[in-house]
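SAMPLE LOG
Freezer: B-3
Tube label: C17
Construct: single chain, 49 aa
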Amino acid sequence: DTLASRNNLALAYQAAGRTAEAIALHRHTLATREEVLGPDHPGTAATRE
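STRUCTURE (predicted):
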């Protein structure tokens, strides 16, 4: 799914030292997951970690 792919890409950015891009993508993904899945969904929680 698109949100999982975005989360994985953000993790890859983080691992590659592309911190600013990782943070921006994590924030965008979290906001979208909260909107689409709700704040208590396991996928939303995974993005917060």
